[in-house]
Protein: NAD(P)-dependent oxidoreductase
Amino acid sequence: MADSPMLKFVNTGQAYPEKRAAPARIEDFAEIARGFAAAKAEEQAGRCSQCGVPYCATHCPLHNHIPDWLRLTAEGRLREAYELSTATSTMPEICGRICPQDRLCEGNCVIEFSGHGAVTIGSIEKFITDTAWEQGWVEPVRPVRDRSGQSVGIIGAGPAGLTAAEYLRGHGYDVHVYDRHDRAGGLLVYGIPGFKLEKEIVTRRYQRLADSGIHFHLGADIGGALPFETLRARHDALLVATGVYKARAIRAPGVGQPGIVKALDYLIASNRKGLGDAVPAWDDGTLNAAGKKVVVIGGGDTAMDCVRTAVRQGATSVQCLYRRDRANMPGSQREVANAEEEGVEFVWLSAPDAFDGEAGVRAVRASRMRLGAADASGRRAPEIDPGSDFRLDADLVIQALGFDPEDLPQLFATPELSVTRWGTLRVDHRTMQTSLPGVFAAGDIVRGASLVVWAVRDGRDVAERMHTWLKDKAKAKAAPAAAVAA
Structure:
């Protein structure tokens, strides 16, 4: 054991890649930390205890082989580490950047429980695959056999759709991906700011899939110019992986006036501007925080993306209003810490009552909250603390309360597509098939707004279900021909 590169957690302290200083990083949208050097990655991987029951893998939605690729990294066997990490994940360097590891793998690391600080799993995962791209180890998908006689249509080029496309192409199917936007990637491109995920990281993934023979149809108007039934007739199977884009609205007096905007509209405008697109609503100031007092309402990761974007756009002040306390917020604690370093003020246990202004918002009237008994989710429910109202000046208010599904039966002009009472697509969870034969669904449009890593997991799972269904369909089609030949 003396020669083992592992179990170094007692003598080697926890370290993350060094972040750029806050005053420097708020001047641009580049990632705030560049990543480990090889020696540092090997050192940090060597802190893994190689425990018999790896809670890190158990609490990863993908059940990544984390202890195994940590050991390979510590031994300098990076190509093997890369191959193992991609055995379970189609986007390891993306998940390494944006997963809330503090709630998943790292938060459940055994040496974290022992007081030595978790292994910095996400940063090492990012390092492994970034190295693989630099070394040319990442290659297009090579189908195991030719099943091009069967085609699959996938609606949605976000993480669930792209993951399913990769696996189905690997099985040899002719895969076509349709998306409403002019770039593939979904919220990876348009929703997540560059300081968390630079766009070329997503672009190279898309290009790899295109180089693998996957066909992309961007700017597709499903249910409009391109009827849903046309796609059903065109392909042997369909996957709906549209995600959820409908913003949850605040119900309060004054909410409809100018200057109160939806989080996704705001983030898409910022990301498009960064990509070089013409964005009139950014140019005229509607979706631009420059020189404004900004109040963001919400406590999830989208709210954190908004406050940190507003800082970089040159807001004069940025405040985040959240109805629960810090310990009960749904967003990543690391993102909160990053935001605080960058000058964001958090107004905990507060909720909006109304919005003042006429030609445009001028202030948020709010009340202090207190946490009462636990609700159905197990979290303590916020309730108004009487007589605690206060006022925050604001020129721009961003609503970041989460997302609900769009009305897909209406959007696709397909009323027979069954939905749940929450508006998500209803599926048979054994087959992941919707109420329509041969139409499958996966990702947020089934589970509701969730993490990218869960979308990747769902894309992986639905690809296997579709593969099984398509093989059975091919056998059924071949049986009559075989009987005639006999």
